[in-house]
Amino acid sequence: MPELPEVEVVRRGLETAVIGRRIEAVSVLHPRPVRRHLAGPDDFAATLAGRTFSSPRRRGKFLWLPLTDGDAVLAHLGMSGQFRLDAPSAPLQRHARVVFTLSDGVQLRFVDQRMFGGLSLSPGGAELPTEVAHIARDLFDPALDRDALVARIGSRSSAIKRVLLNQTIVSGIGNIYADEALWAARIHGETTASALSASQVGEVLDAARSVMAEALAQGGTSFDALYVNVNGESGYFDRSLDAYGREGLPCGRCGTPIRREQFMNRSSFFCPSCQPQRWAGST
Catalytic site residue 24? Predict the structure, then answer.
């Protein structure tokens, strides 16, 4: 699933394309992506027609498109959701699900092959949708209290990787960037968070922010055609990964083959030499 850098790439692309534009019409091509709108697809389309987008916003992995009247369109990208900007004459993408025709004729298309994502209307959600209010601030949020976050993480008895993935503690970090940050900090993901010093926790957070900033500069991480920006371009950060997806390849620091282990129905990638498991994390 897309993590903070990939969602931020989409947000930036939308900001230059939709801000101040009026929604002339909405076409819901498949009902599933608007399933959270209980009044149905036709009502979703009618409710949004005539309204105007303001600047898109994000918290962690969560993206929303505020409307100038105070409501917002909350977007969940799921595993394969994309926003594409196209001229009305451009061929419709095979998996296009919702199409917004904007005031200057440009179309904003929500494309979702697997349809785990979706769009919903959040009344009064322009500043912060209630659906996102429980999500913690991310490492790029200027209002983040870093010292408080370090203390909170250091008080947890769970494995540090589990803590990093807990979006109510710190948002935006997913499986890829957790593995990359832990590799950079030389800490095993199963290390108990409370066994780490404050400086070690801070080092992990600094590494996570650094690796996500680098990924953002390269357009995010793309492993297949599902991860693209609003112009359909893939990111290139997968070429720069040090741990994730590199099972059997030599560690860039010591040459030891990167190891993969099962983790919460996913995989963890780490260097067994640089990241020794000193403490077992609790569940």
Answer: no
